[in-house]
Amino acid sequence: MFNPDVGSGRCDFPGGDAREPFHSMKRLLAFPPETTLYTGHGYPTSNEYTSRDQLPYVTVGEQKKKSKHIKNNSSEDDFVKWRSQRDKEMSEPKLVHQAMQVNVRGGRMPSKSHDGKAYLLYLINVPKVLVTGNQRCNSRRIRI
């Protein structure tokens, strides 16, 4: 959960699940209104969203009143549907591939597959048309 005018983070990265931030936000918003939340993201200072000073924290009351991504009475399914649709419409962040290489799932290795092996999968950018033998792929994201 970011500051109210920024909302919530994307959930469409590998291992992402829109249900997790929904539950986290609900737990945080259950605290008393005067509780201070340090969001970890002070941006934006001035861009398309707003023109405000950087804020290192907000209160639970401010989140409940102003958050553009979570409403006190929105259902989990509504949030997941909205978050998933919004994520599909967003462009890829500039440094996502570099971040993934460094982050490697926050230090957690992937769980084992059906064959008993753990596979670490990365998204890669490929030309619009990838030729493999006689097979053509018109996708920008592939699994290898």
TrEMBL record:
Gene3D superfamilies: Ribonuclease Z/Hydroxyacylglutathione hydrolase-like. InterPro entries: Mito_Persulfide_Diox, RibonucZ/Hydroxyglut_hydro. Coiled coil: none annotated. It comes from Penicillium cf. viridicatum. GO terms for biological process: glutathione metabolic process; hydrogen sulfide metabolic process. One of its GO terms (molecular function) is sulfur dioxygenase activity. This is Hydroxyacylglutathione hydrolase. It comes from the Eukaryota.
